[in-house]
Hints:
The protein is mainly α and 175 residues long.
Amino acid sequence: KTFLTLSDGTKIASPQFFKQGLNALRSAHKALSRKQFLSGGWFRAKRHLARSYKDIANRRRDWFWKTAKSLCEKYDTLVVETLNLDAMKRLWGRKVSDLAFGEFVLILKWQCHKYGKSLVQIDTWTPTTKVCHICSHQHTTLTLADRTWTCDCCHTHHDRDINAANVILKAGMPA
């Protein structure tokens, strides 16, 4: 639901730059398709379309750098889950591509190195969303639609994303 969820309960939403620039991209594509192939107008329209894509990528990258810098200034150790982005793209399509989480993790690694902070990546198959971070009981009946749930063992009510962030933090911290 959100781009990042931190273990302290902070949720960072993605500005969804591709979605914001979709109308400009559509009009640029439409303008390109109406031009005579290899004419001067076609080359101008093609350049305008490329500029539109570059603008979206630059705005996203700028937001990544600023977010990564603020996280590195605030925390000493950052723990992220290694995600199977190809499978997520097949399931959710353009929205996952717009998030560009792999690029964000690369920028976060660089910022952590620059500021002397540590970045830990945990395995993809570590159970994070179905485990209670308090009693470590694993719930197998949870679905993706369950955004909040109550643990059967310790009777604690959890927000799915915040609980997963706490489980990821616990898995990434040395014992």
